[in-house]
Amino acid sequence: MRILTVVGARPQFVKAAPVSRALRLRHEEVLVHTGQHYDDAMSASFFRELEIPEPDLNLEVGSGSHAAMTAEMLRRLEPVVLEHRPEGVLIYGDTNSTMAAAIVTSKAAYGDGLRPWLAHVEAGLRSFNLAMPEERNRVVADHLADLLLAPTETAMQHLVHEGLGDRAELVGDVMVDAFDWAAKRADGQLPPVASEHPGYVLLTLHRAENVDDPRRLAAWVGALAGDRPVLFPVHPRTRTALERGAVSLPANIVPLEPAGYLQMVALERGAAVVATDSGGVQKEAYLAAVPCVTLRTETEWVEMIEAGWNRLAPSPELVPDAIAAALSGTPAARPPLYGDGLAAGRIVAAMEGYVDRRAALGRRAMEATVR
Question: Rg of the Cα trace of the chain?
Fold first, then answer.
């Protein structure tokens, strides 16, 4: 198979790494980076750390409004698909890059009448908050995809409910593969500041609804003021918002540069509790056996809430009590909610199986025409 993989943001680089390693054992991959995350701390350094090849193509789209960014991705990605003529296009998650690649692939047709198929990793996730751009992106991608690769039973149930069950396969969560790989390499990656502040809270904050309004951003960081140290790798978007809004950090919050993947895994494993609005960091906290407080009104990863390892704090005033509850103790059980760390191989096998089924249908159609 020739597979064209489209990524654009840091979480997608992490998810793509184990799949890329498994895929390239037997197949050809063309790796395309849209350039949605474009500075070194959020992009190039991740490819180096994850030990995967640099992208074959970087579309260098950069930042902008949702409309401008997605439109530019559509414009630049379409000729790439037509030039490389992949059998299939592989997309991840819920970003503007995901939706743009889904739309381009669903409309692409080669000169001989063939068209590429589309596979979506992390299919079936739902927050049921349609105000989130990510929710719109993932729903569009799922309904356009030919092969839906679900990480959890809950995601499978969502796909069945939407009439997409016949396209879906439960493969497990590829982030478990990535985290297991990184955990073996994270020793020695903990920054000195973390050792100087034992018992720290690890904070990440980047979603538009949390950081773009200076008053709301100030309320979030103010809710974490206190005696316990808070280590805060600051996302570029959040740093800009802090500076633009003249938002001051409480004395106990220590700002850090954006962390590379191995350093982030080390920070997560060393934390007493994680406070985040990131879906990926929620899950990594669980895999690190560290309690989490999610700074949102909802989470796609409801299994962690049910297991008692994650708590929602939908407004800043709820954060202190949520962190205190998280620090008071975690459940004895931490079930393997997201699979066994072998999802990448299942994803490749699912694509191979889809190609075989498609070829068999084509042969049967040809035989029926001959008869």
Answer: 21
Is pLDDT at 41 greater than 60 in this prediction?
Answer: no
For helices 174-183 and 10-23, angle between their N-to-C axes, nearest 10 degrees: 90
DSSP string, 165-229: GGGEEE---HHHHHHHHHHTT-TT-S-HHHHTSTTPEEEE---HHHHSSHHHHHHHHHHT-SSS-
Per-residue pLDDT, averaged over 327-336, amounts to 90
pLDDT tens across 67-90, in order? 999 999 999 999 999 999 999 999
Helix (H, G, I), strand (E, B) or coil at 297: coil
Chain centre distance of CA 336: 19
For residues 147 and 350, the answer to whether their CB atoms sit within 8 Å is yes
- The answer to whether 158 is a known catalytic residue is no
- Going by the DSSP 8-state scheme, the letter that residue 188 receives in this structure is T
Distance CA 137, CA 192 (A): 39
Q: Which of 276, 287, 304 is nearest to 340 (CA)?
A: 287
Could you tell me the pLDDT band of residue 40, with boundaries at 50, 70 and 90? low
Q: From 340, 279, 342, select the one nearest 305 (Cα to Cα).
A: 279
Give the tens place of pLDDT for each residue, 117-156.
Answer: 999 999 999 999 988 899 999 999 999 999 999 999 999 9
Dist CA 278 CA 12 (whole Å): 13
- Integer Cα distance of 181 and 177 in angstroms: 6
Query: Which residue of the set 33, 158, 206, 235 is catalytic?
Result: 206
For residue 184, what are the contacts with CB-CB under 8 A and spacing of at least 6? Answer: none
Q: What is the mean pLDDT of residues 170-181?
A: 97
User: What are the structural domains, with CATH classification, of the chain?
Assistant: 2-173+340-370 (3.40.50.2000), 192-327 (3.40.50.2000)
pTM attached to this predicted model? 0.91
CA proximity to 144, closest of 119, 121, 113: 119
Element (H, E) at 131: none
